[in-house]
From TrEMBL:
Short name of any one Pfam family annotated for the protein: Flg_bbr_C
Subcellular location: Bacterial flagellum basal body
Residue span, Flagellar basal-body/hook protein C-terminal domain: 226-270
Ranges for domain Flagellar hook protein FlgE/F/G-like D1: 116-178
The protein's name: Flagellar basal-body rod protein FlgG
Keyword Transferase applies: no
Start and end residues of each Flagellar basal body rod protein N-terminal domain: 5-35
Keyword Nucleotide-binding carried by entry: no
Similarity field: Belongs to the flagella basal body rod proteins family.
Annotated GO CC locations: bacterial-type flagellum basal body
Gene of this entry: flgG_1
Record-level GO BP terms: bacterial-type flagellum-dependent swarming motility
Main localization of the protein described in the UniProt heading: other
């Protein structure tokens, strides 16, 4: 009976966490460059049950020997193992702002071992001087004339240096070269992650590597840039709402089973266990 409580409780916790993930996806349906998260729900290892039985051996002293009689396996519940961002390209939205730049995926190599497609990112400088990465091209110029993102992190060029500009009247070519008039000032830095599923999400649409190392250049990957555009969120709002309903129904079903267990325990204590 108590094993049933734990199994049902683990199912409710897993669905609650899935609901929180889906709610966050829907809340960021209009956030530029946001990558929807997907959950992975796994079962705990099954437990194999056996009953202990006593057999009497026909000897003079009536020796007894204990043995195991197989009952069968029992599930020990489920858990949400991890959440993995979906790195598919979001739709481009025109803003007509010169500081908005969309990174458009071209050919992205696929990892031969895992079959996972790589992903491209803008390079940013963290507060500690190390790099982090984003698909959100909603940039701006700070008071000192450096190109930054919405949270004040510096945008880096292909050499890992900050980009200083005179004003927002610059032009960005499809290759990512920033032009002030006829002068090439810098080239926007783009990095390639062969295993984007190994990146860690930091909030505000940014990612870091697990070991803090710098991602390499684009290698065989191809891309283009569109100034005055932003890559939108890749959240499918309709599907997310459907998944939320499914998670809610699963939570509700587990809740009803838990209530049935509770009534059974109450009956056992108050009626079966009553001493007359």
């Amino acid at each position: 009976m108590f094993k049933g409580f734990y199994t049902v409780g683990s199912g409710m916790i897993a669905q609650q966490r899935r609901m929180e993930m889906l709610t966050n996806n829907i809340a960021n349906a209009n956030t530029p460059g946001f990558k929807a998260e997907q959950s992975s729900i796994r079962s705990f290892p099954e437990m194999y049950l056996s009953s202990i039985e006593t057999a009497r051996i026909p000897t003079e002293n009536g020796f007894q020997m204990k043995g195991l009689s197989p009952v069968g396996p029992i599930s020990t519940g489920v858990y949400m193992q991890e959440t993995i961002p979906l790195f598919a390209q979001g739709q481009l939205k025109e803003t007509e702002l010169t500081t908005d730049i969309a990174l458009v995926d071209g050919f992205l190599p696929t990892d031969a071992e895992t079959g996972i497609q790589g992903a491209l990112f803008f390079r940013l400088e963290r507060e500690d001087g190390r790099e982090m990465y984003t698909k959100n091209g909603n940039f701006t110029l700070d008071a000192a004339g450096f190109l930054t993102n919405a949270t004040g992190n510096y945008i880096l060029d292909e050499n890992g240096q900050r980009i200083a500009l005179q004003n927002d009247g610059f032009r960005v070519t499809e290759q990512g070269v920033i032009m002030e008039g006829e002068t090439a000032v810098a080239t926007l830095g783009v990095s390639f992650a062969a295993r984007p599923d190994m990146l860690m999400k930091q909030g505000n649409g940014t990612f870091v590597t697990e070991d803090g190392e710098v991602l390499p250049g684009t290698d065989d990957a191809t891309y283009s840039m569109k100034q005055g555009f932003l890559e939108g969120s890749n959240v499918d709002a309709a599907r997310s709402m459907t998944d939320m309903l499914t998670a809610y129904r699963a939570f509700e079903a587990n809740q009803k089973i838990l209530q049935a267990y509770d009534r059974s325990m109450e009956k056992t204590v108050n009626e079966v266990g009553r001493v007359n």
